[in-house]
């Protein structure tokens, strides 16, 4: 059962819980997760349009793609044009599938002129066991 703090964190982050298999199974490995931070600088005149696009692609990705654990866009308080997006995918296959979705392709094709710079930074979780407690994505069958 998820504790209240973990649930509040999940809601605040715009992420959904992810279910990991038991530790003795091959699929329980958090080593397979693709985790990265996108560091984006947006031109000020395009900020509102970019934020709308980022919110949309994040929400649609989490809602529609079982392999997307989290897409959490945020911006710096002191520099609103400085955007960071935490991205977590179940594995490399989920990440590659994400790149082919209509909602991601619309974002990717519709925002290049808004972006001053983009850097994708691969990350490794410091507490893989802790991630299992925070991200428990429901394995409900979709019709």
Any overview of this molecule?
By secondary structure, the chain is of the alpha+beta class. Helices cover 36% and strands 24% of the residues. It has a single domain (4-21, 30-134), classed as Alpha-Beta Plaits (2-Layer Sandwich), CATH 3.30.70. It contains five helices and four strands; from the N terminus they run αβαββααβα. The chain has a four-stranded antiparallel beta sheet. The radius of gyration is 16 Å and the shape is globular.
Tag the structure with descriptive keywords.
143 residues; alpha+beta; Alpha-Beta Plaits; 5 helices; globular
Total number of helices: 5
**What's the domain count?**
1
Spatial ordering of strands, largest sheet = 2-3-1-4
Strand content: 15-25%
Q: Residue-averaged pLDDT, rounded?
A: 79
Précis, in short:
The protein is of the alpha+beta class. Helix content is 36%, strand content 24%. The two termini are 26 Å apart.
Helix and strand topology:
Layout lengths: L3 H10 L20 E9 L4 H18 L3 E8 L6 E8 L2 H8 L2 H9 L4 E9 L4 H7 L9
Antiparallel strand pairs: 1-3, 1-4, 2-3
Helix pairs in contact: 2-4
């Amino acid at each position: 059962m998820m504790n209240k703090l973990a649930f509040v964190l999940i809601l605040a982050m715009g992420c959904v819980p992810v279910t990991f298999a038991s530790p003795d199974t091959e699929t329980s490995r958090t080593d397979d997760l693709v985790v990265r931070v996108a560091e984006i600088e947006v031109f000020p005149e395009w900020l509102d349009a970019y934020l709308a696009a980022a919110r949309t692609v994040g929400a649609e990705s989490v809602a529609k793609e079982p392999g997307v654990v989290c897409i959490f866009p945020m911006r710096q308080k002191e520099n609103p044009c400085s955007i960071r997006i935490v991205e977590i995918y179940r594995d490399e296959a989920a990440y590659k599938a994400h790149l082919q979705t209509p909602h991601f392709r619309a974002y990717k094709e519709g925002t290049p002129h808004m972006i001053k710079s983009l850097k994708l930074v691969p990350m490794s979780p410091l507490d893989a066991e802790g991630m299992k407690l925070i991200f428990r994505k429901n394995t409900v069958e979709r019709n």
